[in-house]
Amino acid sequence: MLRPGRICVALLICSIPMLLSWGHAGDNMMDPVTHPARDPLDATYMIEGALVPLIHGKIERTVVQGSATRMTTTVLGQPVYGDLNGDGSPDAAVILVHDPGGSGTFYYAAAALYIGQGYKGTNAILIGDRIVPKTIELTNYFINIAYADRLPAESMSAEPSVDRQLNLIVDNGRLAQVQLNGDKEKLLGGWVIIGHEVRSFQPCDQRQALWLMGDSPAYKKTMRAYHQALPQPEPYQKVFMLLTGELIQAPKQGFGAEYFAGFKAIRIIRVFIQGKCTRDGFRFDLLKP
Predict the structure, then answer these.
(1) Average pLDDT, whole number, for the chain?
(2) Which partner from 14, 54, 69, 249 sits 20 to 30 angstroms from 87, CA to CA?
(3) Could you write out the DSSP letters of every residue in 92-124?
(4) Which positions ≥6 away from 131 have C-beta within 8 Å?
(5) Tens digit of pLDDT for each residue in 125-144?
(6) CA count, 13 A, side-chain hemisphere, 37
(7) DSSP-derived secondary structure letter, 249
(8) 262-272 and 210-212 beta bridge pairing
(9) What is the pTM of this model?
């Protein structure tokens, strides 16, 4: 019969291989929360609910154990950088090319958020199957991707020829799509100023300010958001906002008549008191030989 002391020693000795095994497995697992990556090319992203840890912008895995079919995920081109969540840190946006080993080649958009010690990858949003990416821009707190796609009735063998845009923001740490209705509605970042005889929106890509139309669907919400951001604003103080809307003709009378165009605000997407205009982009046609 083993004495209690010998039982403890025996249990400890038996458990050492198990502890070593667990520790080794933990070292190899890429935890996007506790182990942020130094580079977006080494971050862990989530594609269709599965974690995808990249190493130097790529990962290749066996689909089924013993099968020759390989699943690969690769960063296309290079990351683009800019602030996505308003904390002032240089986040990144990437396009991931995901080949699950079948007939399709799927393109995803993802972000890598800088959290102080490194980059934490977000969920990936599907762009399309066998599309042709053109540009990716991280501009004014959102991601814009331009690409060519096919019509719904076209065969996958047809050359993509339909220009499309995808706009994405970070919402509570997750990547989310901003749906726009029609070609006239745009997602713009810029400065809103509300004051005596002034209610203007100065988009980052416009040289002149736009008159914020009083009949805009989001006019009251924009006014409310401005005053909530600045409870006691100084005269003509500005607030950075992400708005969707349309450029239209300026009013013919009143203070708005002095502006070259009006802005019909449809939705407020984000509000940043300490925002700024930024832009970083990459053209994928540079990848062609």
Answers:
(1) 86
(2) 54
(3) EEEEEEEE-SSS--EEEEEEEEE-SSSEEE-B-
(4) 107, 147, 148, 149, 160
(5) 999 999 999 999 999 999 99
(6) 26
(7) P
(8) parallel
(9) 0.83
